[in-house]
């Protein structure tokens, strides 16, 4: 079957199947084969690779992934799209379609269901998606904190979110998302994508980013849940000093001040100036002080 990634073929398929792209599901289909190819190529796929795709839509990206990977597992929430997908993917024997909600999927179990569990050593795989924008952050949190055997993620996201993933201390885009992404992965920009290559057109431009999973987190943060609580507290009230922002953790002031002194972090600084290492040191110092109480 010819690629569905052209305006003519996408529109014809939408009409033929009586589909109405749902905004509530983030349905903006790619209609530019050149962009589709660049996204798939960014994942560096070969015949030995398994790739999971979230939200295949009409199959534009799936068709290309199937050309390059050994096995493609595509999870689509909208059952109305499944019949269109069966048609656009009918000559792709290496694609497995799964109807379901990616937010609820245990990706390792899903892959093991098709590939076996590797005799206890779960197979690794890549993840590629033109993400539905309305759930970008929860999906990303699920993918990263879920500790799945994903080695690389190539994701198309709203440009603004992409810049937040890559932001460094001191920039206006730097926040909790930057820390979570950089803690677990090494992010890089692959490509800027204008809104004109989608049907229907979204209201914003997009960015394709590649996240390479680190073998070990970027820093040793001690208790991870606590580390992320500290990070969220620091950024929830960005304009406050760190000392005031961390009040929301419910800890006594003297303890906060002692931990800041131990970590070498000035209480008057703002959270948005702290590096990921400084957050980790602060979080560990707070944990130590709490244990000593
Ligand atoms: C931006 S579209 C991308 C479609 C296609 N991959 C493309 O590039 O043309 C997002 C897709 O994700 C699907 N989707 C939305 N929420 C989902 C979820 N929770 N789990 C799986 N798929 C979801 C939508 O139905 C839609 O097909």
UniProtKB/TrEMBL annotation:
Binding sites annotated in the UniProt record for S-adenosyl-L-methionine: 28, 30, 55, 76, 101, 130
Report the locations given in the UniProt record: Cytoplasm
SUPFAM superfamilies (UniProt xref): S-adenosyl-L-methionine-dependent methyltransferases (SSF53335)
GO CC, sorted alphabetically, is: cytosol
Task: Specify the Ribosomal RNA adenine methylase transferase N-terminal domain's residue ranges.
Answer: 35-215
* Pfam families, per database record: RrnaAD
The record's principal subcellular location, in a coarse class, is cytoplasm
Question: Which Gene3D superfamilies does the protein's record reference?
Answer: Ribosomal RNA adenine dimethylase-like, domain 2 (1.10.8.100), Vaccinia Virus protein VP39 (3.40.50.150)
EC number(s): the record gives 2.1.1.182
State a single Gene Ontology molecular function.
RNA binding
Q: Which reaction does it catalyse?
A: adenosine(1518)/adenosine(1519) in 16S rRNA + 4 S-adenosyl-L-methionine = N(6)-dimethyladenosine(1518)/N(6)-dimethyladenosine(1519) in 16S rRNA + 4 S-adenosyl-L-homocysteine + 4 H(+)
- Broad class of enzyme this protein falls into: transferase
S-adenosyl-L-methionine keyword on record: yes
Output the InterPro entries linked to this UniProt entry: KsgA/Erm, rRNA_Ade_diMease-like_C, rRNA_Ade_Mease_Trfase_CS, rRNA_Ade_methylase_Trfase_N, rRNA_adenine_dimethylase, SAM-dependent_MTases_sf
Keyword list, A-Z: Cytoplasm, Methyltransferase, RNA-binding, rRNA processing, S-adenosyl-L-methionine, Transferase
Q: What does this protein do?
A: Specifically dimethylates two adjacent adenosines (A1518 and A1519) in the loop of a conserved hairpin near the 3'-end of 16S rRNA in the 30S particle. May play a critical role in biogenesis of 30S subunits.
Protein family membership: Belongs to the class I-like SAM-binding methyltransferase superfamily. rRNA adenine N(6)-methyltransferase family. RsmA subfamily.
Name of this chain's protein: Ribosomal RNA small subunit methyltransferase A
Q: Which organism is it from?
A: Neomoorella stamsii
Q: Lineage, please?
A: Bacteria, Bacillati, Bacillota, Clostridia, Neomoorellales
């Amino acid at each position: 079957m010819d690629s569905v990634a052209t305006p003519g073929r996408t529109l014809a398929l939408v009409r033929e199947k009586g589909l109405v792209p749902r905004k509530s599901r983030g349905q903006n289909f790619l209609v530019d084969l050149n962009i589709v190819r660049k996204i798939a190529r960014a994942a560096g796929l070969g015949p030995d690779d398994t790739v999971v795709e979230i939200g295949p839509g009409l199959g534009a990206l799936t068709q290309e992934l199937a050309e390059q990977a050994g096995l493609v597992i595509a999870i689509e929430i909208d059952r109305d799209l499944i019949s269109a997908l069966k048609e656009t993917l009918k000559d792709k024997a290496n694609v497995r379609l799964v109807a379901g909600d990616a937010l609820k999927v245990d990706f390792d179990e899903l892959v093991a269901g098709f590939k076996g569990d590797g005799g206890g050593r779960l197979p690794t795989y890549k993840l590629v998606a033109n993400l539905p924008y309305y759930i970008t952050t929860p999906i990303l949190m699920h993918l990263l904190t879920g500790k799945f055997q994903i080695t690389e993620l190539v994701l198309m996201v709203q440009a603004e979110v992409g810049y937040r993933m890559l932001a460094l201390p001191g920039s206006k885009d730097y926040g909790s998302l930057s820390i979570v992404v950089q803690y677990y992965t090494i992010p890089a920009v692959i490509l800027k994508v204008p809104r004109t290559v989608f049907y229907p057109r979204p209201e914003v431009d997009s960015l394709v980013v590649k996240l390479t999973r680190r073998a070990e987190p970027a820093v040793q943060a001690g208790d991870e849940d606590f580390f992320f609580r500290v990070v969220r507290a620091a950024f929830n009230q960005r304009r406050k000093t760190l000392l005031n922002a961390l009040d929301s953790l419910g800890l006594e002031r003297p303890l906060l001040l002692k931990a800041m002194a131990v970590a070498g972090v000035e209480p008057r600084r703002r959270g948005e100036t702290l590096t990921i290492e400084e957050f980790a040191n602060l979080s560990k110092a707070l944990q130590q002080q709490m244990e000593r109480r």
